[in-house]
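re: the backbone from monday

yeah here it is again, tokenized this time
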């Protein structure tokens, strides 16, 4: 299929993109931003999205601030135009290596080579790997709009099906990950490699003073079980003070499965999704512990 008719515009910088969004909206248009286009264009081709105007952010790739990484005391900042593939091959250091490892789950190589970190987060797919990672690592989404710059905590970002806190006249310029996680992992299940995940799980473990000491805590995030990615406090509560190992990880998987109420749809029943969640959380926790021990 082909998309419905739309007008095409190219933005030269962030302020130009913000201005174009405002002008088009004031003229009665329904504009959308496009960066890599790996999420928006398929939806337009199937007429699931029908913007009347596109504002292309492609020229912004020339801006070093939007197409680079930076480590600071407040965490790792990734520019909005950085692609999945760039993250996949980057040396981000042990505290954020989970970001690189998780990229193998993102579509296929052509998609990873064009799709952007910020684009995926703003798209707000409940199973998108970047949305889970944003919650896992306490990301802060930096957006520019007519009122200036504002920062959106990941916990306030995802509102429901493809719905986020970014306003229609705002442009995301960076994503800052503030919670280092040397023991972290993301895993998922899809019918075929590269397909959308049916369920995915991202976890992190806060180690105690020794390898067999009780854990200080951890995070469990699930996608595909609700309209937006969710943390699972019932599973996280077991990690605080728990002794790392197969028994604890299996118990967390059981707790996660019991805490969620997934939907029934064409991809599987709620019962099936709960079983996937249990297995994926258990598996991811084991992987996170091993990754931390071998870094």
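seq for it, each position gets an aa:
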């Amino acid at each position: 299929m082909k998309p419905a008719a739309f007008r095409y515009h190219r933005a030269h910088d962030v302020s130009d993109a913000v201005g174009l969004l405002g002008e088009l909206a004031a003229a009665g248009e329904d504009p959308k931003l496009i960066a890599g286009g790996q999420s928006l264009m398929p939806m337009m081709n199937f007429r699931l999205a029908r913007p009347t105007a596109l504002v292309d952010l492609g020229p912004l790739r020339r801006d070093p601030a939007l197409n680079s990484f930076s480590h600071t005391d407040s965490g790792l900042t990734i520019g909005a135009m950085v692609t999945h593939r760039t993250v996949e091959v980057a040396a981000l250091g042990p505290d954020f290596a989970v970001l690189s490892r998780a990229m193998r789950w993102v579509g296929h190589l052509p998609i990873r080579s064009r799709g952007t970190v910020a684009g995926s987060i703003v798209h707000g797919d409940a199973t998108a790997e970047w949305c889970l990672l944003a919650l896992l690592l306490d990301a802060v989404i930096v957006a520019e709009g007519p009122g200036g710059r504002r920062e959106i905590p990941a916990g306030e970002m995802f509102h429901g099906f493809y719905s986020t806190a970014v306003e229609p006249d705002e442009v995301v310029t960076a994503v800052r990950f503030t919670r280092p996680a040397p023991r972290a992992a993301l895993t998922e299940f899809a019918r075929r490699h590269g397909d959308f995940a049916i369920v995915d799980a991202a976890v992190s473990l806060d180690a105690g003073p020794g390898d067999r000491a009780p854990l200080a805590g951890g995070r469990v995030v699930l996608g595909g079980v609700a309209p937006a990615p969710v943390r699972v406090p019932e599973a996280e509560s077991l990690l605080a003070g728990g002794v790392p190992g197969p028994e604890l990880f299996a118990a967390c998987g059981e707790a996660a499965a019991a805490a969620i109420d997934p939907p029934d749809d064409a991809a599987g029943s709620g019962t099936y999704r709960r079983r996937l969640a249990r297995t994926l959380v258990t598996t991811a926790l084991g992987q996170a512990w091993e990754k931390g021990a071998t870094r």
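The CA atoms of residues 20 and 109 lie 32 Å apart. The longest strand covers residues 199-206.
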